[in-house]
Amino acid sequence: MIIRLMGEGQWRVDEGLQDELNAIDAQLDADVKQSDGAEFARHLGVMHELIRSRGERVAVDELVPSDAMVPPRDITLEELRQLIGEAGLIPG
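^ thats the sequence. predicted structure below, dont judge the formating
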């Protein structure tokens, strides 16, 4: 799976990491529903760090479509509400 960190680039992630990211995505969804900005920021930060540390960065000159897009860490709850779909950020 290819994940785009908006404003930063793309990373390849394996299925094991995808499962972990789906669990965090579910927590992010709960944070948004509860309007819990602090937990939302924490979970989004964890998602970013996992992708960066365990994913493989896609070369800038390699053109591949993204399977998922993760918003920047400074996104607000309201902005995320407008961006997120019913499936969440990470498909699966």
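The first strand starts at residue 2 and ends at 5.
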